[in-house]
Amino acid sequence: MVDGSGNTFENFACKSTRIPSIVTAIHTRSSLVHDVRRGDRMLPGVILAIFCLAGVAVSQEVPGTQERSSLKIPVFEPTSPDSAVVAATYVSIEPGIDRLLRGDDPRDLKELKALQRQQSKVAEKVHRVTVNLQHGSTQGSGVIINEDGYILTAAHVAGKPKQRITVVLHDGRRVEGISMGVNRDNDAGLVRILKNRDDNNQPWAHAALPAMDERLKVGQWCIAGGHPGGWMPDRPSVIRVGRILRVTDTTIVTDCSLIGGDSGGPLFDLQGKLIGIHSRIGVDVDDNMHVPMKVFMTSWDRLANSEAWGTLPGFKPVIGVTASRTSDAKKECVIGSVSANGPAAQAGVKPGDQIVRFNGSEITSFDRLKEEVDATVPGERVTLEVLREGKRVTLRLIVGVSDES
User: Fold this and answer.
1) Prediction pTM value
2) Identified catalytic residue from 34, 156, 227, 278
3) Which of 170, 228, 272, 377 has the least C-beta neighbours within 10 A?
4) Beta carbons of 164 and 360 less than 8 angstroms apart
5) Phi and psi dihedrals of 287, rounded to 5?
6) Is 156 noted as a catalytic residue in this protein?
7) Is 187 a catalytic residue?
8) Read out DSSP for 152-177?
9) Is 62 exposed, middle or buried (0-12, 13-18, 19+ CB in 10 A)?
């Protein structure tokens, strides 16, 4: 048997076996892969969200929203037919593939076919819980993780707490959501659907979750879902298979090919248990970094309380301005200096300008401006409004990356 690239299934030495029955073709558009560089040097990883180029949209905050912060992240438990709520992605293991579950290679065609069947079963279920997330000019992926409609995603997809998020479900229905906490140190974000039941008043279908003490192994087979290139009405979430290359407490590295739009999408094991969330890619599209479930579990209280903290390593956003020393930076945001050739300078910001709005949010102090900049990612397009000589001027700016990050 041969896949579309000409690789034979019998070639077990390849770093991931291609399974044609569950791999959907991806039309990669280079403009959709967000490639951030400092000069000619590639940053440590490439952000996988998409920033729409056709125009600058403004994200909306949802004021006064009360969060259900008492909810704890559910712990994976094997499901049974009489369970009140069954995790939608859980799949029992086929007989005789325990070795493959540990990450070993298939020894013969029989084991390879068993592996393919197992991956196909998981792939069929992944679509139902994988969602597309849209807000402002950003588009990414996410995965529903409990019956109340909580969604795990990447921090750079969620953006900042209390933003209105459009959640596109597997069948194309759109529901309203809200961003909650973001752990930018590890690129972990939380979103929830505002309605805690679906249109039929049923609990939301959700992914199966691992136990707290479950450990991942190098070589372990994995299955990635997401919306590469963004949401497309005539295509479900795209499935790719691969293996775990490296594991640390804060990062999983796999060879599942990912591109722009996949950020925040789910990574599953062979039992359909969620093991990670797509974060960024390395130099190649088959060298990808994911946020382990352990990060979400240990950050859960802060995420559920809509806190925002940290900076994604290598991706500290900047616009290249300082506060005026002659103004009260706690009561207004007057610009003192603008870095030559920096993002603000290229957008047309001048010393003496008072920034009153940034990316749709009111700016009342320089600290508030810093908070809003920290909620963006390098390469994102935003609008800002400044007061200049008594007139309001609207400018468009592309967020830059700090040389010190």
Assistant:
1) 0.75
2) 156
3) 170
4) no
5) -130, 90
6) yes
7) yes
8) EE-HHHH-STTBEEEEE-TTS-EEEE
9) middle
Q: Which of 63, 30, 136, 61 is nearest to 377 (CA)?
A: 136
pLDDT in tens, 76-135: 344 444 443 468 898 888 887 888 888 888 888 988 898 999 999 999 999 999 999 998
> Taking a C-beta distance cutoff of 8 angstroms, is the pair 317, 400 a contact?
yes
**Which among 147, 165, 144, 127 is positioned nearest to 49, based on CA atoms?**
165
Which DSSP symbol is given to 223? E
The answer to whether 222 touches 272, Cβ cutoff 8 Å, is no
Q: CA 269 to CA 172: how far, in whole Å?
A: 26
Name beta bridge partners: 388. 391
For the chain, give the number of residues.
405
Which of 16, 59, 141, 263 is the catalytic position? Answer: 263
The strand ranges marked E within 113-250 are 130-135, 138-144, 150-153, 164-168, 174-183, 188-193, 221-224, 240-247
**Cα–Cα distance, 100 to 137 (Å, whole number):** 41
Distance between alpha carbon 61 and the CA centroid of its chain, in Å? 19
Residue 77 has which token pair? Answer: 């438990």
Q: How many CB atoms lie within 10 A of CB 311?
A: 14
- Eight-state DSSP code of residue 197: S
User: In this predicted model, what pLDDT tens digit does every residue of 225-264 receive, in sequence order?
Assistant: 999 888 888 888 999 999 999 999 999 999 998 888 899 9
- The one catalytic residue in 16, 135, 137, 187 is 187
Q: Is the Cα torsion angle 94, 97, 100, 102 positive or negative in sign?
A: positive
**Strand pairing of 274-281 and 150-153?**
unpaired
Residue among 22, 242, 10, 12 nearest 2 (CA): 10
CA–CA separation, 161 and 368 (whole Å): 14
Q: How far apart are CA 132 and CA 73, in angstroms?
A: 21
Q: What is the CA radius of gyration of the chain?
A: 22
Count the alpha carbons within 13 Å of 355 in the hemisphere toward its beta carbon: 38
Q: Is 16 a catalytic residue?
A: no
Return all residues near 362 (Cβ < 8 A) that are at least 6 apart: 356, 368
